[in-house]
């Protein structure tokens, strides 16, 4: 198996997923760039630690999520996370959907954010999410159940839509 | 409504980005171009297509055997030092005998010996006919797939084979560059699967478990700026200039390895930067894809030639990097203060024109690695009402209410020192969570707790290495050092050192965080303390 070829395929097939995940956590475009750049470099540097190349996609997503939190924690010391969120929400962006995505994430239990990003934004399967977050599949199911309830509440509060 | 229908409806009601913006695509594209595309071309199937004329090899082998002066000649009959451009005497000291035989098809192949240092491994085989009859072949090519630790493909950098009268068969040697595995040499194994040997198909598999006791230290020189990029220098050609950069040099027992990059001109030529229309226009020219022969030389500070190679370059389609090139040459003494890289353009009449010279400083005084910890620059942290001394090799900026002092480190990550004067808003936020905002200890512990919680992953393991009241320079405060492991193996982690202290009764926090490198943390430990000690209100 040619690992470089697999690496390129995984990057190209998951550009949008990587971007959505980083954007959902970080919001600020400069931070998203930094996180993606760092994650690619870390994955490349540590690829020999990956035991199964078939897990490259989930492994890279995990690295990316960790990089995003790395950036968040650096920023959070200087600015309370809540203020940071508000500051970034009023930034100008070239698409209008972002605010909606962030409103959802800002209004759910922080422990459920990753599940929501991976399942609803990136369409990962439950077993892939278990691999990325390194948690049992049963935990994914139970968190997903809670996430679903919270999402229904948040979306109902912001929309006319009613389930 | 069942869960699937609810999920579908939820997804339909979440607005999210549906396209990847150009700035993000550029990051992916550049990463693939610079790191993966080139390796894909040469690492992939590892088909080595070089075919050498046997007559030449026999002649050189006979000469070596006749002199018989080198130990290796007795083992294999080849002057490996000259063939692979490594230090022969030091190479001989590292030889390990294996004598493992595999028979497949018509051939019996014996892996006889190998030798390795931190940069290179040489593997030596003998090849005989299965029926012990004299073997005569017309091709000396070796096609092999090689994997390190079961999964990382590795290409043969150079190979050689010749007929040996004594064994009525052939001797073959292969050279691999392994400097990328320096950190893992304690747990290094190689699987070599030869699928074609000297024109004969077959399957000869060998596994090499490296002898840990043979691991030696190397010394590495990096030539990168704060952004992690090596300085480019322009190389004149017949059409438009190209550019090169010397990225690093690793020196070990019998070999040195340098990684150089060769760049397409539009990305380095004034007026063409990021101007895709100009690039597209230039690419239409017939000269764009012309092959131009170059010669690259490396000389030591006494003018001795360490390496010489002819290289026919062609411009790639539209990519920034034409080639990432790995050059292996003999090790050199740590007394050596500089190396000179010379590039010649070879004309149609074979005349050589010197088109670029780059002198690489290796000594401590000249190397940026020592300058990066000098306090040669003063920066103001306006929001914190202080000024701080730091190194001009680090990037400084005030953002989001704190002073950030950062640099790309030698381990692929970013090292960042932060100095923060806590705002009333942050302190009130902490106070509302029960933090004693007048106590350095309480503040430091709150920051540490927040750091760990912000990772939001219960599987991460946190470990406090030390904490306590301490003094850095003139400042009394509370220090905590802790790591957060991000994976089971412990190879990915954050290491933090935070120091909460007061200046004029106002609470500050200085911190340094390093990503997955204890060595980088140790490198910067003293610098961090010097920066704090230099703070002036």
Helix content of chain B: 10-25%
Strand content of chain B: 35-45%
Total beta strand runs of chain A: 0
What is the H-and-E element order of chain A?
HHHHHHHHH
Low-confidence stretches of chain A: 81-99
Summarize the structure.
Helices cover 73% and strands 0% of the residues of chain A. Chain A is mainly α and 163 residues long. Mean pLDDT of chain A is 73; it is low at 81-99.
Question: Mind explaining what this structure looks like?
Answer:
The complex is a heterodimer of chains A (163) and B (537). Chain A is an all-alpha fold and 163 residues long. In chain A, 73% of the residues lie in helices and 0% in strands. The termini of chain A are far apart. Chain B is of the alpha+beta class. Chain B has helices at 3-12, 22-43, 54-67, 71-75, 80-84, 88-93, 276-284, 368-371, 424-432, 440-454, 518-533; strands at residues 96-104, 107-116, 120-129, 142-148, 152-154, 158-164, 169-177, 189-197, 200-209, 219-222, 232-235, 242-251, 256-263, 292-300, 305-313, 321-329, 338-346, 352-361, 377-381, 386-390, 395-399, 402-408, 414-421, 461-472, 475-485, 493-503, 506-515. In chain B, a hairpin with a 4-residue loop joins strand 6 (158-164) and strand 7. Chain B is globular and about 90 Å long. Residues 38-76 of chain B have low confidence and may be disordered.
How is the topology of this model organized?
The complex is a heterodimer of chains A (163) and B (537).
Chain A: H1 3-13, H2 15-26, H3 29-45, H4 56-76, H5 81-89, H6 97-106, H7 113-121, H8 126-133, H9 137-158
Chain B: H1 3-12, H2 22-43, H3 54-67, H4 71-75, H5 80-84, H6 88-93, E1 96-104, E2 107-116, E3 120-129, E4 142-148, E5 152-154, E6 158-164, E7 169-177, E8 189-197, E9 200-209, E10 219-222, E11 232-235, E12 242-251, E13 256-263, H7 276-284, E14 292-300, E15 305-313, E16 321-329, E17 338-346, E18 352-361, H8 368-371, E19 377-381, E20 386-390, E21 395-399, E22 402-408, E23 414-421, H9 424-432, H10 440-454, E24 461-472, E25 475-485, E26 493-503, E27 506-515, H11 518-533
Antiparallel strand pairs in B: 1-2, 2-3, 3-7, 4-5, 4-8, 6-7, 8-9, 10-12, 11-12, 12-13, 13-16, 14-15, 14-17, 17-18, 19-20, 21-22, 22-23, 23-27, 24-25, 25-26, 26-27
């Amino acid at each position: 198996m040619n690992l470089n070829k697999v690496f390129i395929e995984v990057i190209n097939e998951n550009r949008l997923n990587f971007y959505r995940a980083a954007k959902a956590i970080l919001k600020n475009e400069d931070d998203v760039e930094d996180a993606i750049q760092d994650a690619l470099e870390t994955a490349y540097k540590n690829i020999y630690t990956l035991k199964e190349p078939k897990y490259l996609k989930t492994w890279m997503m995990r690295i990316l999520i960790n990089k995003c939190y790395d950036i968040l924690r650096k920023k959070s010391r200087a600015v309370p996370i809540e203020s940071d969120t508000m500051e970034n929400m009023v930034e100008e962006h070239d698409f209008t959907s972002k605010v909606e995505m962030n409103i959802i994430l800002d209004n759910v239990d922080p422990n459920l954010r990753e599940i929501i990003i991976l399942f609803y934004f990136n369409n990962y399967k439950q077993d892939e999410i278990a691999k990325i977050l390194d948690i049992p599949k049963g935990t994914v199911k139970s968190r997903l159940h809670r996430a679903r309830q919270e999402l229904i509440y948040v979306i109902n509060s912001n929309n006319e839509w009613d389930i | 409504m069942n869960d699937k229908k609810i999920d579908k409806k939820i997804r339909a009601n979440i607005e999210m980005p549906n396209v990847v913006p150009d700035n993000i695509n550029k990051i992916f594209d550049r990463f693939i171009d610079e790191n993966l595309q080139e390796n894909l071309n040469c690492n992939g199937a590892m088909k080595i297509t070089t075919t050498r004329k046997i007559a030449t090899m026999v002649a050189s082998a006979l000469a070596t055997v006749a002199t018989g002066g080198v130990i290796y000649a007795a083992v294999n009959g080849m002057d490996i030092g000259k063939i692979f451009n490594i230090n022969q005497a030091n190479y001989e000291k590292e030889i390990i005998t294996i004598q493992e035989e595999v028979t497949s098809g018509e051939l019996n192949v014996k892996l006889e010996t190998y030798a390795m240092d931190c940069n290179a491994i040489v593997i030596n085989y003998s090849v005989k006919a299965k029926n012990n009859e004299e073997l005569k072949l017309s091709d000396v090519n070796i096609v092999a797939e090689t994997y390190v630790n079961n999964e990382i493909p590795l290409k043969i950098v150079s190979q050689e084979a010749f007929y040996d009268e004594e064994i009525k068969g052939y001797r073959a040697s292969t050279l691999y560059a392994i400097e990328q595995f320096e950190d893992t040499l304690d747990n290094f194994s190689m699987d070599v699967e030869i699928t074609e040997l000297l024109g004969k198909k077959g399957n000869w598999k060998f596994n090499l478990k490296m002898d840990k006791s043979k691991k030696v230290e190397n010394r590495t020189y990096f030539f990168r700026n704060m952004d992690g990029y090596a300085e480019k220098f322009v190389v004149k050609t017949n059409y438009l200039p190209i550019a090169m950069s010397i990225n690093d040099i690793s020196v070990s027992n019998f070999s040195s390895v340098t990684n150089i990059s060769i760049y397409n001109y539009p990305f380095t030529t004034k007026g063409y930067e990021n101007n895709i229309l100009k690039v597209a226009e230039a690419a239409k020219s017939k000269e764009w894809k012309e092959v131009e022969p170059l010669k690259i030389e490396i000389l030591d500070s006494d003018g001795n030639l360490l390496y010489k190679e002819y290289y026919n370059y062609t411009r790639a389609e539209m990519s920034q990097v034409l080639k990432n090139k790995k050059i292996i040459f003999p090790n050199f003494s740590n007394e050596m203060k500089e190396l000179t890289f010379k590039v010649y353009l070879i004309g149609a009449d074979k005349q050589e024109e010197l088109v670029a010279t780059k002198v690489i400083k290796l000594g401590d005084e000249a190397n940026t690695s020592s300058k990066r910890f000098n306090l040669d620059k003063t920066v103001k942290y306006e929001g914190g009402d202080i000024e701080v001394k730091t190194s001009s090799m680090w990037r400084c900026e005030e953002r989001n209410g704190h002073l950030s002092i950062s640099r790309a480190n030698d381990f692929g990550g970013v090292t960042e020192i932060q100095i923060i004067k806590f705002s009333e808003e942050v302190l009130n936020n902490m106070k509302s969570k029960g933090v004693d905002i007048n106590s350095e200890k309480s503040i430091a512990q709150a920051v540490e707790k927040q750091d760990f919680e912000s990772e939001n992953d219960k599987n991460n393991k946190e470990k406090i290495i030390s904490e306590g009241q301490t003094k850095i320079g003139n400042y009394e405060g509370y220090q905590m050092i802790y790591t957060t492991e991000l994976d089971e193996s412990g190879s990915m982690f954050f290491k933090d050192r935070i120091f909460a202290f007061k200046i004029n009764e106002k609470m500050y926090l200085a911190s340094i965080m390093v990503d997955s490198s204890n060595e980088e943390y140790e490198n910067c430990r003293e610098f961090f303390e010097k920066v704090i000690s230099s703070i002036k209100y």
